[in-house]
Specification:
By secondary structure, the chain is mainly alpha-helical. The protein has 10 helices and 5 strands, in the order H-E-H-H-E-E-H-E-H-E-H-H-H-H-H. Helix 6 crosses helix 8, helix 6 crosses helix 10 and helix 9 packs across helix 10.
Length: about 240
């Protein structure tokens, strides 16, 4: 049996806000303030930065934090309230917190905290959008796992999450590769060479850059004064072909 008097996560959050909001209201401060997690648990478990309050109260964040912290009452899952470097930080009573949350965790299982956001928002997350002119590598797996993990967490929490993978296959970089294929691939395919398609394309991109560097070196030795970018866009034979 679960004690009906035991608070769940939503009730705990309401209790925490109930200790802070009246104090903010009394001071004439915004009620929809930001909550942050301190970098060190020794400083507290949850806090409110007071820097934006300085303009309203015309006091330093440090003084504001001290005044507000003195008025916020501890109790229940809040073991202590303290001012730390311009923040009002709440220190949780971890035993009380566990006593309240563990029954809910055990009851809800994998659905614990699902849809827990107070105000659902629309999110857009782009990943991993690899460079279409370079071979894929282990870093892309890392980015895919991070993107998938973040999107799953945000969606689980109740936000409207849209994910996308940008395939950037337009632009001068693609034209360079296409020109390299026309000039130096001799009509061969990745299958002909026994290489992966992304490596095949990447090699062509590198080949173009190498051939352009040769052209630019000849230009510079002949007394040319344009920068590499200027030369590519204004005077280079390869640059002109790539652009057209």
């Amino acid at each position: 049996m679960i004690d009906e008097k035991v608070l769940g996560i939503h009730e705990i959050w309401a209790d925490l806000k109930g200790r802070i909001v009246p104090v903010l209201e009394e001071a004439g401060l915004p009620l929809d303030t930001e909550w942050v997690v301190p970098p060190d648990p020794e400083m507290g478990h949850l806090g409110i930065p007071c820097f934006t309050f300085a303009k309203v109260l015309r006091k330093s964040p440090k003084v504001i934090a001290e005044e507000l912290a003195a008025k916020v009452k501890a109790g229940g899952v809040v073991a202590e309230v303290k001012a730390v470097q311009g923040y009002v930080n709440l220190v949780f009573n971890e035993k009380e917190m566990a006593r309240h949350l563990l029954p809910e965790i055990l009851t809800q299982g994998d659905d614990f905290a699902k849809g827990g956001c107070a105000q659902p928002e629309k999110w857009l997350l782009e990943y991993s959008s690899p460079n279409t002119n370079k071979p894929l590598h282990l870093g892309h797996i890392r980015n895919n796992l991070l993107g998938l993990g973040i999107s799953n967490i945000v969606r689980f929490y109740g936000h409207d999450m849209t994910t996308m993978n940008l395939v950037n296959d337009r632009g001068i970089h693609i034209c360079k590769t296409m020109l390299a294929y026309q000039r130096w691939a001799d009509g061969k395919t990745p299958m002909d060479l026994g290489v992966k398609g992304d490596h095949f394309v990447g090699d062509l991109y590198v080949r173009f850059d190498r051939e352009f560097k040769k052209e630019f070196d000849v230009y510079k030795k002949g007394g040319g004064t344009l920068s590499e970018d200027e030369y590519f866009n204004q005077a280079s034979t390869l640059g002109k072909e790539a652009h057209t």
